[in-house]
Amino acid sequence: MLATSSIVATVVGLTAWACAATPSQLKATTAIAVPPQAVLLDPLAFNVLSLNGSFRESATEFFNPTNTTPPFFQVFHPDFLKILGPTANIRAVAANPTFLFAHEAPIWAPKTDEVFFASAGGAMAAIDQYQVSKISLRDVAAAIKASGPGVTPVNVTATKIDLPETIQATNGGTGLFYGNLVLVTDGNGPLPPSLALVNPAPPYNATVLLDNFFGRQFNSLNDVKIHPGSNKLFFTDSTYGYFYQLRPPPLLPNQVYRFDPDTGSVRVVADGFDKCNGLAFTPDGKTAFVGDSGSNDGLLGTNQTKAATIYAFDIDAKSMAFTNRRVFAYIDTGIPDGIQLDAAGNVYAGTGDGAQVWGQDGTLLGKFFLGTVSSNLIFAGDGRLVILADTAIYLAEIAAKANMLSFP
Ligand SMILES: *[C@@H]1O[C@H](CO)[C@@H](O)[C@H](O)[C@H]1NC(C)=O
Ligand SMILES: *[C@@H]1O[C@H](CO)[C@@H](O)[C@H](O)[C@H]1NC(C)=O
Ligand SMILES: *[C@@H]1O[C@H](CO)[C@@H](O)[C@H](O)[C@H]1NC(C)=O
Ligand SMILES: *[C@@H]1O[C@H](CO)[C@@H](O)[C@H](O)[C@H]1NC(C)=O
């Protein structure tokens, strides 16, 4: 009886889906304008590759069946066209092929219209190769204007900022928080990972808010966000400092913490990860997203049977512990790194092929396909998405509006 009714339900469900999707959801969306750099990829067209299909051998190989030259918008669902808008465009705006200058910790400072970000050091890099820099989006706008029509790449100068010795190997950032950049660091050898505020204007002075858990050093702090509503700081801690030979062996589980800057109280709100990485909140502050990049073992390589997964959680109103963990999305290429939301609650993550975007229900809507790893991205106000890709920074001008990350 149970079995019969569930079969009926499945068939009805399939029929309804097939109707809605025939001839195809994507092709039926002629009402929505398709920007020139968009490529529509109907899932119905690649669900069956068949006996001699060209299947991917690894999670680092790209899924680009149209062989389109990046950067472009890969559209799997009509909702991605709404996110992009009819005049969307994407191009590189800064590049340095010899240095991973634009890796993580993107923060938009609205007053000066600058985006701050941290470099990667690369494997076993000297600590002085880890730097925080900024670009001016006013310079970007001027360079684009001067470049004429089309989507020619431009190359504005990234300016390194001088930081005190307490800021060692920045990997995460958010804000502004009371007008300051919020940075989290990996630490370096015996020097502790830390959570710090940094003045976004010269002399870029910093105040470390936290560098231990009741006397124990963190492993290497990875990412940080301000929780909307409580305005407390939440951050992830993972073993990447160790995996990149920057830090001694880890002495704590990889987990997510909540820090209250007013009382100094620090507590764990989520555990059970291989390597927790990016985190983000819905604008109403009720749902948290945490990426687990477990399949990336740093210098030890990739094990693609391990997590490359974004989990969603409810946030307990009293304790602020993350509860009701569920899979939100598994990433087809690479791992989920930094996570951001737009104002409508769509979820964006830096991944192995650029930035990927999911609807609130976890459907993959599309990709900002760069053909290279993106570790994080940031809305610089409505309609401007700045995507970090290690040796380059891309700007996508789109329709989506920014999610507020700052406080107050
Ligand atoms: C697969 O390739 C083999 C060898 O080239 C060929 O004989 C066969 O017909 C192909 N099968 C399909 C379904 O295309
Ligand atoms: C962009 O400019 C920087 C200097 O600001 C330079 O180091 C880099 O090589 C340039 N990139 C390209 C792709 O020309
Ligand atoms: C930077 O220095 C100014 C002047 O002393 C101080 O008011 C401010 O709080 C400092 N900012 C940080 C983030 O340490
Ligand atoms: C990959 O990870 C799985 C699950 O942890 C483990 O069983 C397997 O031994 C790993 N493979 C390699 C090659 O390390």
From TrEMBL:
Residue intervals of the SMP-30/Gluconolactonase/LRE-like region domain: 205-383
Keywords recorded for this protein, A-Z: Signal
Keyword Signal: yes
Stored SUPFAM superfamilies: Calcium-dependent phosphotriesterase
N-terminal signal peptide: 1-21
Protein name, per record: D-lactonohydrolase-like protein
Originating organism: Lentinus brumalis
